[in-house]
């Protein structure tokens, strides 16, 4: 009898530990999910303050302004429906340029400006990040226009 | 002309693979000699595809821009060595390389399988042939590298500048050798399932193949990480990028596999489990191919995307994995597997090792696949942040690495009584805790993770060395030395990797600043002076080159030249980091952008012990290779 109760304690201890670990695992997983929004999907109320997520779009022509003595840059991205102002301090990736698709991680400020922590423009000048391409798909005409200027090949 | 020959050779290879798999059902009615057809056709694949591969290389060298693949990945100004490596820089060529490597492993399997019984050998080779057919069909129908351009361009579109690099020349072949080497293990496992048995001597036969694939995978991943470090210009060595994960998952499972195979061989245990691992390992390497080649991931590996290719690989993956798993469910229960064992034994430690590795793989798989599944279902676009991997994967690795310092000891000291072992265990534990506590004098920044990292490093190294030396003295035989040197090296490599990764992640200094000409900046005990900036013309690019002088304690050490290139044909800018490599630290400078006249934004990094990461990985790989080579010489496989 005593051995049996011991075993019950033993098993329930293991089960408890495992479920605790599993719970922690799920929580970590959930906490680290980064959502993606295109400029026209952004609403002020969706995420709490200081919530980190990603936005993406095409860098608007003529929107890039650089500071003369700091590493701060300001630019806008667009999905051709809405545009969003971005501010970033740091070195931009090589392939960052106007007309290029970018994905940006950061926070939305109360002033409606997106404060970037990381700017990604990846690897190939003809390459459009899939997320950005998708958010442009709503607007076929614009999509044709932008993709024509980029040498997309089969 | 040469392109036609190349394509014709692929068709011949495809035909040859068809003969390989169909000769048994077709020829066995007429002649008992069908086995020689299987044996010779399994050897013939390799030369055929090699010749085809060479003709693609020649097409690149002679600038045959009538080929679509050549014109979109090369340029007449490209240096000849990059023309050669461009052969496998794009999708089609790298699939041809994949087929080449697969036929190479088939060739090797055919040569070295003489010791297996003939029926087993033929089945085994036929399954390899089946895999060859799948990939050759993929190559021919969806990704023909010899496809012609409708109109011949005057010049090619050049190779992506990121890929014009030594890293690219060697990284894909190494990685493919590893990925595809697992096909041998997979085919073997399936044959075992067909034969309802997995004998210890079979485990002994297959283990070198798993070890070889594992060490190629290790080399491939390490090269990829090294390439990312110096070429992407951020100075990171691992990003938990889905593409990296795709190669890391098969590596983890293969690590589990090479350990469980030991138990299969010595104790005739974990047979079903090992076979399952073999199937999963190859399936994950196919999954990796699918993820990378279908273009659903954003990375340097996704070239032009064609949905048909993704669909084909996915279908192939489903067929291969699905049928292997069904076979497993049907036949695994028929295998004679011992399941009971003592908890305080080598086997149970291997079991824990396996559980941890498989769990780690699962967490990475979840982080990689969950966003994709949500996206495909159209629910949400998400990505999984790096902190997830660090906070889930690293805690799983700590007990695993702890075991790595303990198992070899258990492994070697069969005769030592368990009581002596626990005493030894406690003493060494205490000594190593003390050593690790002293280590805080070595580091300016010191925290729990450095302590853990240093503890694990000291735990593995000291235990291994102590045990290795005492055993060497007590047995006094050179044979002992050769038998265990590979294992010893691989685990030591792991220890070096751990200390490198821990120190660089905790003690690195990264500065992003604006520097004027002639300005000085102090980073990590070094003083960097921005001396000059000049324009420069390369073979197919123009660039600006910065010149930095580095001092420590007012003593000049070295010049560093970070560079910003603009490639002519693609107008693609590229940052070439200036790196001063060293055993104890790397200094790393990249140019950002010009802010004003003589005023640049720059990144200056101080990376302590970062070389240990790759040195460790190299040691792991060479340890594995060494043990394969030595085992082949000392142990003759018996039937």
Architecture blueprint of SSEs:
The complex is a heterodimer of chains A (154) and B (639).
Chain A: H1 2-31, E1 33-37, E2 52-59, E3 65-66, E4 72-78, E5 83-89, E6 101-108, E7 114-120, H2 130-136, H3 140-149
Parallel strand pairs in A: 1-2, 5-7
Antiparallel strand pairs in A: 2-4, 2-6, 3-4, 4-5, 6-7
Chain B: H1 2-27, H2 34-61, H3 68-73, H4 80-85, H5 91-112, H6 118-142, H7 166-194, H8 200-231, H9 242-267, H10 271-293, H11 307-331, H12 346-376, E1 382-384, H13 386-412, H14 418-438, H15 448-475, H16 478-507, E2 509-516, E3 520-523, E4 526-537, E5 541-552, E6 555-560, E7 563-567, E8 573-576, E9 578-580, E10 585-596, E11 599-608, H17 611-634
Helix pairs in contact in B: 1-2, 1-6, 2-5, 2-6, 5-6, 5-7, 6-7, 6-11, 7-8, 7-10, 8-9, 8-17, 9-10, 9-12, 10-11, 12-13, 13-15, 13-16, 14-15, 15-16, 16-17
Beta content of chain A: 25-35%
Write down how many β-strands of chain A occur, each being a DSSP E stretch of 2 or more residues. 7
Distance between the termini of chain B: 49 Å
Unreliable segments of 5+ consecutive residues of chain B: none
- Biggest sheet architecture of chain A: 5 strands, mixed, barrel
Shape of chain A: elongated
Number of strands of chain B: 11
Helix content of chain A: 25-40%
Explain briefly what this protein structure is.
The complex is a heterodimer of chains A (154) and B (639). Chain A is α+β, with helices and mostly antiparallel strands. Chain A has helices at 2-31, 130-136, 140-149, and strands at 33-37, 52-59, 65-66, 72-78, 83-89, 101-108, 114-120.
What are the salient characteristics of this protein?
heterodimer, A: 154 residues, alpha+beta, OB fold (Dihydrolipoamide Acetyltransferase, E2P), five-stranded mixed barrel, 3 helices, elongated, disordered C terminus, B: 639 residues, six-stranded antiparallel β-sheet, four-stranded antiparallel β-sheet, 17 helices, 64% helix
